[in-house]
Amino acid sequence: MDTIGELLGYEDPDKMRGFFRKKSKKLENKIKKLPDAVSEFVAESDYMAIGGFGLVRIPTAFLHEVIKQQKKVATCAFFTSNYDTDLVLINGMMKSVDMSYGIALEALGSPKVLRKYFENGGIKVTEWSNGALAWRYKAAAMGLSFLPVRSMLGTDTERYSAAKEIICPFSGKKYLAVPALYPDIAVIHVHEADMYGNAHIKGVLVADVDIAKAAKKVIITTERMVDTEYFRNNPQNTTIPFYLVDAVVEIPYGSYPAEMPYEYLFDIDYFKRFLQAAESDETFDRFIKENIYECKDFYEFISLNGGVERIKELRNLELGLKGSSL
Amino acid sequence: MDTIGELLGYEDPDKMRGFFRKKSKKLENKIKKLPDAVSEFVAESDYMAIGGFGLVRIPTAFLHEVIKQQKKVATCAFFTSNYDTDLVLINGMMKSVDMSYGIALEALGSPKVLRKYFENGGIKVTEWSNGALAWRYKAAAMGLSFLPVRSMLGTDTERYSAAKEIICPFSGKKYLAVPALYPDIAVIHVHEADMYGNAHIKGVLVADVDIAKAAKKVIITTERMVDTEYFRNNPQNTTIPFYLVDAVVEIPYGSYPAEMPYEYLFDIDYFKRFLQAAESDETFDRFIKENIYECKDFYEFISLNGGVERIKELRNLELGLKGSSL
Amino acid sequence: MNEKYYNEMELMICAAARIFEDGVSVSVGTGVPCAAVMLSQKLYAPNILILFEAGGIAPLLPSMPISVGDKNTMYKALQTTSVSDAMEMNQRGLVDYCFLGGAQIDMYGNLNSTIIGSHDNPKVRFPGSGGANDFASSAWRTIIVSPHSSRRFTNNIDFITTPGYLKGPNAREEAGLPQGTGPYKIITNLAVMNFDNDERRMALESVHPGVSIDDVVKNTGFELLIDEHIKQTEPPGEDELKILRNEVDPYRVVIGKKAQ
Amino acid sequence: MNEKYYNEMELMICAAARIFEDGVSVSVGTGVPCAAVMLSQKLYAPNILILFEAGGIAPLLPSMPISVGDKNTMYKALQTTSVSDAMEMNQRGLVDYCFLGGAQIDMYGNLNSTIIGSHDNPKVRFPGSGGANDFASSAWRTIIVSPHSSRRFTNNIDFITTPGYLKGPNAREEAGLPQGTGPYKIITNLAVMNFDNDERRMALESVHPGVSIDDVVKNTGFELLIDEHIKQTEPPGEDELKILRNEVDPYRVVIGKKAQ
To answer: How far is A282 from chain B (nearest CA, A)?
Structure first.
């Protein structure tokens, strides 16, 4: 089957080797303030990869700042993306995206005004499965220009992808070769990080280790800073090693209103308000204005939505401390 | 370049899918005694994969028992193998092996009598690099019949391997496709395991996670048993999950005379005695007889070599408690 | 028929829960599939191995997850790993069942969850494959849950997001998909369907209590294979409903919804 | 020359240690390479990133490892990971240098560590590639340490275990190896050599104190490129020797051995 999707985020592996060669491998202080991290690292033509999955461990604070600064990211992987990629759409410059799942908060519903971006033909979509996008990141992470996989074969998902069929020289079987995906920038929210960028993630890892290896620039946002001894004393704590990372931003509650596993649950009420606002352009614009543009920082946004009291409730729900109803 | 090495340990991926389908996914008590684990699980025609690396975290107790029972394993991957594969050679039925590194204890020297197995032409060798063997296990672990890699190209290591060159459909670059490696049996020594086979490894993982996924039968030997809550309370402790595992054998000091990271150092004096004995067939036969055949169990072997006092010394050396000289 | 003491969603969940043999492995998402697997675990298959694509393996699932990586999917799990690891477990042949929905389905069990209309200018844009295509490619058996209407059950599907038997016998194997895999059962608010082994076409297996074969035919946009002995779907038992309502979904997150 | 206040091994280690710029990454094994990198870290390149193929990343290396996965390779490391992860870091282009030895080497820097004689019936069987082939394929620059003799430096090598420039200019790229990689320097007990950029052939860079160009030529089994201005290798400095003997290798595990 010939495929007709646009190939996005791919680079020649030798060119990328040359790029990675130049990245600093020194133990350097990479701590940045949130506004500086966004203004220094996010470029208008970037392909952005976002860590986390669904309503879990997404780098909300960073993405809100991207909106505030009106950075017009060029494209993005919609990889079981919900609120995160919705946000990236808002600045409205995307023309092409890689999509395995997007514009829906899973069972909670779909933001109507953002779905319109797709339904009016303004965005060209290259289709993938979640596995295919995870494997595209993994190909790049392994230093390969492709990986053979056994998904997508025979479907329109294959046809509208940018994959290519190949034959295994041992089994003679047909495989789909998915191309490496090298995002220009990756943003990943973690539980702990040190000043050099060593980072620890608890719970499901999604594709974040491979994304950090695949991306040209890697920004870590973290619930809290820890000393490097935290990693040196137990090197298995290092989910993402320092030499992959360009900047570290400390943002407690930085994933709110999404869940941070073992820390705080997602705020389902916020997401319901978000979906309701997304029923019309007018209500949505007002919602984004109030919750993002007019908030002087991320903590004003949290305050607006119940503040530290709400975070405490979400922490109790996450830890099952008070007979959580979720 | 055409390759001329014998293809070992490869299976059709669909055939292996059928095999893995039939493996039990139940939480069942898999605890076995060492002699039973060897007699029930090791078959004469087996391709055996051995966990650990060099002088570190190898399943010595299991391998000594394989010798004692004179199980004639058919082949093996020599994957930075030292004492471990040396042992597997002793029963003397191997005709073909996959080799990236073997018959040498790194800087300590090479066991002369075992090198002779290779130098008299009795063993046919398919050559690989360490990366290639690690990736062969990984291909199987990913459910693929091959992985593209950028090693071995242009060398005699490639020529005497069983790999095949392919072209990346995106970059047009030449890659080497390494075939999946599905060992019949894998033996991996770990720090902690529960009765179901969930296992935790501390320190470097070598290729053991991929080996456990690639192998048809997986035997875990463990320094100590733990309750399943150890894993349920922190699922990141699970290095190897239960559903891959066929048997669990508790053997404290089961890696001795090799190192168990964070537990005890390798016994360099033992290895020097081993190498010295390996200078002639006569001394070697006597050494193996004393240390393996005539020992009623693994603890008699340890007793013979300094017993619990020696283990204490090695623990102090490992933990740096008494000004280690290593 | 008596007044029904259960709703359509409850019936679908119970019918699905009975499929699983003890000790099988299942890739699930949120919603109906998760409720069915939880019910099965409590009643029929205590050793069922549940996995979520975000990386949660064998959690104890105290309550219904809302997002495929949320805390319930890793609560007391036996491992927390990655998307690629979970998908590779499917690709290796370790996963017996997966459990999917879709906006459209054709007679070969192909699913559309991408678009209505043309790809370049869609009338409706759905979320896309997510993990569905991977699961249906590599898990041994695909179970599909769907509301039953001729709009949804149609051979004019706008986009094959997720493979059923594609164009019929051998088409999966010719496309390169793993041997011996494919759709197994479809559970709707009207009936249970399966697939004919030779033709790979959808066949009626049982109709739900109070539903006629004709109801099913009228609501299916293509010809269903129907043999002489069509049974009635076993209605939910008392035990099933008690556990479903009290333990699996006490907040009626799933069973409180309409099936359509 | 004065009586030498250092031995050949110490000279080789010091010459190698001076190669690394601060902040580079190096794949190393045990022995001379590790001693050189440790010395470099203490004197010249405090930010050097050291990795071991068994999975130890950025350890503090309190003393010389004996096995590539032993406790020293993970002591206070910043990560403990796997062989494939370490090799993929090389394959991605993140590793500036690797550091190898071999039983034979030819004028293109190809290395043999597999056999002497024929492959089917070897006279001597060596351990094999280990990680050497992977490192030399993917790290940007390969450094080789070897005793110097015409038996070892020969164009009649019995087996190319590990790629140098293969058959000369462009041969690596044509074989499919990553662009811009290859042997960089060779350090022996007699001299330091490098590679001509056009011909990809081994060229003499400097001779060690007390060694003549003729000594090097006599001990090399192929023609070396030798230009007019061959310098003398800088002998070990006082600082270098002090740190090497007191801190890097106090038990003389490496420096107590002979270079040949």
So the answer is: 44
How far, in Å, CA of A288 to CA of A295, rounded? 10
pLDDT (tens digit, 9 = 90+) per residue, B172-227? 999 999 999 999 999 999 999 999 999 999 999 999 999 999 999 999 999 999 99
C89: tokens are: 């477990």
Which chain B residue lies closest to D120 (C-alpha atoms)?
B121
ipTM associated with this complex? 0.97
d(C-alpha D160, C-alpha D107), whole Å: 12
> Chain A: nearest CA to C139, how far in angstroms?
11
pLDDT reported for residue B322: 62
Fill in the amino acid letter for A117: Y
At D185-215, the pLDDT tens digits run: 999 999 999 999 999 999 999 999 999 999 9
pLDDT of residue D1: 41
> Nearest-CA neighbor of A185 among A218, A140, A141, A136?
A218
Q: Are C38 and C150 in contact (CB under 8 A)?
A: no
pLDDT at C36 over 50: yes
Give the chains touching B; criterion: ≥3 Cβ pairs < 8 Å.
A, C, D
CA distance A281 to B307: 78
Is D80–B203 a contact, with Cβ atoms under 8 angstroms apart?
A: yes
For C136, name the nearest residue in chain A, comparing CA atoms only: A151
Active-site positions of C read 53
Cβ–Cβ under 8 Å, residues B267 and B305? yes
Whole-number average pLDDT of chain B: 95
Chains D, C in contact, 3 or more Cβ pairs below 8 Å: no
- CA atoms within 13 Å, Cβ hemisphere of C100: 33
Residue B101 and residue D25 in contact, taking contact as beta carbons nearer than 8 Å: no
- Give the residue from A15, A16, A26, A205 with the most D CB atoms within 10 Å of its CB, the best one to mutate: A26
Contacts of A213 in chain D (CB under 8 A): 88, 92
A205 interaction partners in chain C (CB closer than 8 Å): 55, 80-82
pLDDT for the residue A59? 97
- Which residue of A lies nearest to C257 if distances are taken between CA atoms? A107
Contacts of D143 (CB under 8 A, 6+ apart): D16, D19, D33, D97, D98, D99, D100, D183, D184, D185, D186, D187
Q: Which residues of B touch C57 (CB under 8 A)?
A: 235, 238, 241
> Which burial class, exposed, middle or buried, applies to D251 when counting CB atoms under 10 A from its CB (0-12, 13-18, 19+)?
exposed
Which tokens go with B60? 């010595």
3-state secondary structure of A65: helix
Tens of pLDDT, residue by residue over A104-144, are 888 788 999 999 989 988 899 999 999 999 999 999 999 99
Q: Helix, strand, coil proportions of chain A in percent (round to 5)?
A: 35, 20, 45
Average the pLDDT over D101-110 and give the result: 94
Contacts of D39 (CB under 8 A, 6+ apart): D13, D14, D17, D240, D243, D244, D248
